[in-house]
Every structure is written in C-alpha cells, then in structure tokens.
Design goal:
The structure holds 2 protein chains of 2 kinds.
Chain A lengths: L2 H8 L8 H12 L5 E5 L6 E7 L6 H7 L4 E5 L4 H12 L13 H12 L9 H17 L2 H14 L3 H8 L6 H4 L4 H9 L1
Parallel strand pairs in A: 1-3
Antiparallel strand pairs in A: 2-3
Chain B lengths: L2 H11 L8 E6 L7 H17 L11
The chains are: A mainly alpha, B mainly alpha.
Chain lengths: 193, 62
C-alpha cells in the first residue's frame, strides 16, 4: 500500500475531487478504519486542524470519542474549501511510516518547535518532513495532472484567475500557485518514488 | 513547563489520555506561530471533545 496507488486512482477522478472517494480509497489501501472527522472551536491563526491516531484508551469518555478510529479535528470557522483541504492533508498521514509518527510528548514538542521555529532548520525530523509531504500529497490528489495542465494553460493563455481555479478545485485560493510552481512535477515524482 | 503543556501532552500521550500513536497538525495563518498558544488550542479542543455530550461531526457529502 502506498501513496502512489492513491495518486494513480485520483488521476481518474473528476474535479472537484470528492473527499469520500479519497477517504474510501485510503482506507482500502491502508486497511485502516475511516477517520472520525469533527469540528472544534480553534483559533485559525494558530491551528486549522490536527490528526490523532488513538492507542489503547482506558478512559470511558475517551473511548467514546476515539471509537477506535483515527480522529481528524478541524477548526469550526474554516470555510468549505479549507475544511476539504485540511481533512485531505491530515488523511495523508494514514501513510506515515513508524519513523514519521509522533507518539510521545518529546516528539510532539519537537514537531511544534519545527512549526514555530523562527528560521527553517537544515536538520528536520522525519515527522516534520511528513507534514510537508502530506501537504503536497493532498494537492496531488485534489488536482489530477491532466486537469492541472489544462488549468495552467487557461491561466497562462486566457488569464483564468486563481480564485476561479480554486472554485473549480474547491481548494483554498492561496494554494493554487503551488500547483503551478515549476518544481511541481519533480515534487510529485519524489512522492511517487 | 506550564500546566498547558503538560495537559496537552497528557491528553494526547498519557496513559489516562488517548495514548496516541501518531499526531500531526495543520498550522494556522499566523506566520509567527507560538508553540505554547498552539498547544493551548490543542488542549482546549481535546478537552472540549472529551467533556461534551455530543460531537460536531463533519458531514462529508462530497
């Protein structure tokens, strides 16, 4: 089971790519249960969402919360496009390797430190790297390559604005330029390797 | 170490918490995030999820 299989599956989907199609395929590929996705009041300046895989839970209320499933929590104030993107990005962590997983307080602190560092570090943890790859994986499956090239041509030749592309894909407008970065195909190639 | 830091970690990884095997996050819009404030958001949301009588599930129809 790998991201490559998910990516190839997504290439045949129509835009806007449906979350349920991706969720079902990821669960099929990883043999893991569907996530429990819920909304909570969070300051979107600080955090837009998070992903938690519960372990063995002894507390009864926590058992009800986890229900034996991975949990994706998104900020309640996110609009539809943001909620879509955050959920799909967090879904990509179903593919995390053991080295990429954050399963202790120390690893959690290290991850937070990586996000909040004033300058990017040359010595990034596997966990933080998986946050970056998760972002690009989400972009890759939310925009099939043939459609991406078509949208790029429309943008370059007909001035199709980023906001319209965002509406077609139902992703946040600020991530549309990332689809058209000259290095995009190389980034995806590395994810598929 | 503040109470907020211990509490977020305990809720996520403690034996009386979720005993999480993986945690990842999607950062907010602020380009200068403060780790303690982010942890407080996580702690508060987890506490809310644990103590509330009903969970606001996302309805995913697409």
């Amino acid at each position: 089971m790998s991201f490559k299989e998910l990516y190839e599956f997504a290439q045949h989907l129509q835009i806007p790519v449906g979350r349920n199609d991706l969720i079902n395929k990821v669960c099929e590929l990883t043999n893991k249960p569907k996530p429990r996705c819920c909304k909570e009041a969070m300051d979107t300046n600080r955090i837009r969402g998070y992903f938690v895989t519960p372990g063995i839970v002894s507390n009864e209320r926590l058992q009800v919360l986890s229900d034996g499933k991975p949990l994706i929590v998104v900020a309640r104030d996110l609009n539809y496009c943001w909620e879509r993107f955050v959920i799909i990005k967090e879904l990509m962590h179903y593919f995390d390797t053991p080295l990429e997983q954050v399963s202790s307080a120390d690893e959690f602190n290290s991850l937070l430190d990586s996000f909040t560092a004033s300058a990017p570090s040359l010595d990034r943890s596997e966990a933080f790297n998986s946050e970056i790859t998760g972002f690009w994986m989400a972009l890759g499956v939310l925009c099939p390559e043939t459609k991406r090239q078509e949208l790029l041509r429309s943008h370059e030749q007909s001035d199709l604005p980023f906001i319209e592309i965002a509406r077609l894909l139902r992703i946040p407008e600020q991530y549309v330029p990332h689809l058209f970065t000259p290095n995009y195909k190389n980034i995806i190639a590395r994810l598929l390797d | 170490m503040t109470n907020e830091q211990v509490s977020a970690q305990e809720l996520l990884f403690g034996m009386a918490g979720l005993s999480a095997t993986n945690f990842k996050m999607f950062p907010g819009a602020d380009r200068e995030l403060n780790a303690m404030l982010v942890k407080e958001e996580i702690r508060r949301s987890l506490e809310s999820l644990i103590t509330s009588d009903s969970i606001d599930e996302c309805i995913i129809e697409d």
